[in-house]
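Batch queue: ligand-bound targets. Current item pairs a single chain with S-adenosylmethionine. No template structures supplied; prediction is de novo from sequence plus SMILES. Inputs echoed for audit trail.
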Amino acid sequence: MLSADIQLPLTYKTIFNQSQAIGFGMPSDVETGCLLRTLAAGKPGGSFLDIGTGTGLSLSWMADGADPKATITSIDNNHKYQQIARQVFADDDRISLICADGAAWFNAYQGAQFDLIFADAWPGKFECLDKALSLVKAGGFYLVDDLLPQPNWPQNHQPNVDALMHTLQARTDFVLTPFNWSTGLCLLTRVG
Ligand SMILES: C[S@@+](CC[C@H](N)C(=O)[O-])C[C@H]1O[C@@H](n2cnc3c(N)ncnc32)[C@H](O)[C@@H]1O
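Prediction returned. Tokens below.
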């Protein structure tokens, strides 16, 4: 399998082990992470948004790809999960961790657009989608995961995913690529 050769970020194992220790059951996978790292590396000095920090796995990949001038904002409403990321990235000045409800954060946010948004929580994906997409810079990326059936999907979730894909595909200001890979991804780039 090709992905067996993917080199993990230095912070990954610590976060992964601590995630297992607290029973965190929603980790993003290595393939998604590897793509995130590549996208982050393609935007030197970029500004990145990670919605759904969890314990910091996706953040570890973004931080690994990001250059020293890049910044990463990562949001989660669960303090216990996010605390692991807080400890691991305590000395990384590029990273701002915010413990807040994602929808409240989107509704209040008036700041600059981002070069890359990873939408891995309900807000920014099934809620506040228009706001999230409005925050992608021209030429910037929006990546969403968990679009293929997952063991941790809520009941009757397929119609939500179908509606999301329908909405994304109807956007004329983005071009997109769906991936039947990893947990099911869709990558969009703003063109309008
Ligand atoms: C799929 S997990 C994120 C996994 C993480 N990105 C990773 O790489 O392992 C989704 C996260 O969204 C958080 N979450 C759920 N509802 C939220 C909300 N309304 N606002 C902010 N975060 C939320 C959960 O606490 C959970 O940590």
